[in-house]
Amino acid sequence: MSDSSEHGPPPQDAAPERTQPEQTQPEQTQPEPRQPGQTRCGLVAVVGAPNAGKSTLVNRLAGTKVSIVSPKPQTTRFRIRAVVMRGQTQIVLTDTPGIFAPRRRLDRAMVAAAWEGAQDADLALLIVDSRAGMTEAVQSIVSVLKRSRVPIWLVLNKSDLIDTKRLLPLTASLNEQLSFEETLMVSAESGDGLDRLLEMLASRLPYGPWLFPEDELSDLPERMLAAEIVREQILRLTHEEVPHHATVETEQWQERRDGSVRIDCTIYVGRASQKAILIGDGGTKVKDIGQRARAELERLLERRVHLFLNVKERQGWDEERARLRAIGLDDAG
Predict the structure, then answer these.
(1) What stretch of H or E contains 139?
(2) N or C: which end of the chain has fewer CB within 10 A?
(3) How far is the C-alpha of 264 from the C-alpha of 257, rounded, in Å?
(4) Torsions phi, psi of 254, nearest 5?
């Protein structure tokens, strides 16, 4: 689109040039040039099917751990914002839960959080796993995004793991279904293509004041960060039904005089058998979870952490409104 504000009819045959007294012409309204120091800011929703690599991408772009990651699907349960500075542009990335067919109240709340994140954004990135290609989940997401008024970019992740020739038909097929404003091929794991993605986002977002202080990395409170780090280790160290039927809440956060912090977290599971698996023989499993989570928290918080874990059986916690609110989700009914 042209920025010019002057349009007129084509010129007629030129008349003989005559010297005329200089006349004052009415001033044309021109858009004010942007000042060099003017800032940009915008919300960028990161959406996609489970295990597309959304959280890995957000963490890589942010340059720090904002969202927990694991090989298991549905790791992210609520929206998390990461703040990325690029020159005079503040890019606020919204990591959203993977979009899938929900069954439980928890599932419905997660999917609702993902769609709300997309609707509230200035721009949405649809992350597609290049290896998985056009799955039913991707087709379902694209069909809903067709009704969105938010500009959408297609980001093919894990593109370094397959031949480029195989990417071209996938790109063409997706763009036939939805007219993406931009299409990019990246690798969140290796970092390929991410610098270009950030540059394009920085120049695309609207002019406006920053939403967060320049040195802020995320809107995730430290209490929720602690609970998420514990849940990450549960996802990594347990299998089958246990990871998706467990939730973690930070019950106590106590600052100590020596600069360290005591954190008490409760792990809720749905059945007694799940509780037994989490505790392990002689408490070995929960001890391992606690040690790994404590080490990660000390790295992120940059201070000593005293972490205490308690495992409780709470049947039907994933249908309780109070439990969903505790982990940062609105009840979707």
Answers:
(1) helix 136-145
(2) N
(3) 17
(4) -120, 115
SS3 185: strand
Of 141, 63, 112, 58, give the one whose Cα is nearest residue 328.
112
CATH architecture of the domain with residue range 222-326 = 2-Layer Sandwich (3.30)
Residues 6+ apart with CB under 8 A from 169: none
The predicted-structure confidence for 223-242, as pLDDT tens digits, reads as follows: 999 999 999 999 999 988 78
Q: Is 164 exposed, middle or buried (0-12, 13-18, 19+ CB in 10 A)?
A: exposed
Residue spans of beta strands (DSSP E) within 49-193: 80-86, 89-95, 123-129, 152-157, 182-185
Assigned token pair, 191 = 């970092």
Start and end residues for every CATH 3.30.300.20 domain found in the chain = 222-326
The H-or-E segment that residue 134 falls in is none
Domain with CATH 3.40.50.300 in the chain: 40-204
Q: What is the DSSP-derived secondary structure letter of residue 319? A: G
At position 51, the amino acid (one-letter code) is: N
In the predicted model, what is the mean pLDDT of residues 242-247?
88
CATH of domain 40-204: 3.40.50.300
- Identify whether the C-beta of residue 93 lies closer than 8 Å to the C-beta of residue 62: yes
What DSSP element (H or E) covers 310? strand 305-313
Q: Which of 116, 96, 102 is nearest to 54 (CA)?
A: 96
- Residues 97-120 have a mean pLDDT of 75
Give the pLDDT confidence of 18-63 residue by residue, as tens digits: 444 444 343 443 434 445 569 999 999 999 998 999 999 999 999 9
Whole-number Å distance between alpha carbons of 118 and 96: 8
